[in-house]
């Protein structure tokens, strides 16, 4: 039974974000801007059938939660608004994000698990996450971002049937020396994109660190078993920028059955790859040499998992209130 239900028949939360954004840009705030919905250490959570408008900061932020359903959510913010991430599961287990429409000034979905030494010490990953039937518009950020706060680990993410329109990158992994943690067993399929700067973007050179707790320069992240399957993109500036860490490469990348149509002013170099390794098959334009082409007969190399996660068996609850 669900213990925490935030639901409404298309009800609206308005965050009055404009005044917060102005003060933030002017450097007038003494404290952090609030999130619109934040839940900590909660179990059996449902957030459904709501419209969230103009959040001062992130919109939905479940932290250290277990068994979370976020479904039927519309999130609207100006695409120039600062840090208006859509949905940010943070050190959560068994989460399902489904049937959501997001327009934001930052990532539509950003998956997190703590920052630097504090995240490593707490050691609570985000794992067993489903993202399904998501539509995203975010011209300056990612449709699905993993990190950069990933020091507790991110594992077993399954995203499918995603639509991206006018967004900076389709799938982005962001980390750096000192993060520690891991991002592994990531599966994305059936993604349709139009007007993108990058389809795939990974960087191991993100150097923003925790100002209070510091970081350990010997804490290296592990990025492995990242799978992309059955994708189509149009009007793309650059297919992929995949930049790992020297001496700590990103491994086990697999990209299969992906067709990318280029913009009129596309980059001449479509793939930029350093310190990464993996395979590819049936990708247009052809990937870099570090992702070894297996040929069209190997398109099943990065198949999507067939087992069902426990959160997929949980049904949405209805909640009614009469004054």
UniProtKB/TrEMBL annotation:
Compartment(s) of residence: Secreted, Cell wall
Protein name (record): Polygalacturonase
Primary localization class, coarse: secreted
Lineage: Eukaryota, Viridiplantae, Streptophyta, Embryophyta, Tracheophyta
Sorted UniProt keywords: Cell wall, Glycosidase, Hydrolase, Secreted
Annotated InterPro entries: GH28_Enzymes, Glyco_hydro_28, Pectin_lyas_fold, Pectin_lyase_fold/virulence
Family: Belongs to the glycosyl hydrolase 28 family.
Gene3D superfamilies: Single-stranded right-handed beta-helix, Pectin lyase-like (2.160.20.10)
A GO term for molecular function: polygalacturonase activity
Region forming the signal peptide: none
Domain of life according to the entry: Eukaryota
GO terms for biological process, alphabetical: carbohydrate metabolic process
């Amino acid at each position: 039974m669900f213990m925490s239900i935030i639901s409404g028949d298309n009800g609206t939360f308005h965050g009055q974000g404009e005044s917060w954004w102005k003060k933030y840009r002017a450097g007038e705030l003494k404290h952090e801007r609030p999130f619109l919905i934040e839940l900590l250490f909660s179990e059996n959570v449902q957030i459904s059938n709501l419209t969230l408008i103009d959040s001062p900061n992130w919109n939905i932020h479940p932290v250290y939660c277990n068994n979370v359903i976020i479904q039927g959510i519309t999130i609207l913010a100006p695409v120039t608004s600062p840090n208006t991430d859509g949905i940010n599961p943070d050190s959560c287990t068994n989460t399902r994000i489904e049937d959501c429409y997001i327009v934001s000034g930052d990532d539509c979905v950003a998956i997190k698990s703590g920052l630097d030494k504090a995240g490593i010490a707490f050691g609570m990953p985000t794992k067993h996450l489903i993202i399904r039937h998501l539509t995203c518009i975010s011209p300056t950020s990612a449709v699905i971002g993993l990190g950069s706060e990933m020091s507790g680990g991110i594992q077993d993410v399954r995203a499918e049937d995603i639509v991206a329109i006018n967004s900076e990158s389709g799938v982005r992994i962001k980390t750096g020396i000192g993060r520690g943690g891991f991002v592994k067993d990531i599966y994305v399929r059936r993604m349709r994109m139009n007007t993108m700067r990058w389809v795939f973007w990974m960087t191991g050179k993100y150097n923003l660190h925790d100002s209070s707790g510091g970081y350990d320069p010997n804490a290296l992240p592990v990025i492995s078993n990242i799978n992309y399957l059955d994708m189509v993109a149009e009007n793309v500036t650059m297919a992929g920028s995949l930049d790992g860490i020297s001496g700590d490469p990103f491994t086990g990348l697999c990209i299969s059955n992906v067709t990318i149509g280029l913009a009129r002013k596309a980059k001449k170099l479509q793939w930029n790859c350093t310190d990464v390794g993996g395979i590819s098959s049936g990708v247009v334009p052809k990937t870099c040499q570090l992702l070894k082409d297996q040929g069209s007969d190997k398109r099943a190399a990065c198949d999507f998992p067939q087992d069902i996660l426990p959160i997929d068996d949980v049904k949405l609850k209805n909640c009614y209130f009469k004054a």
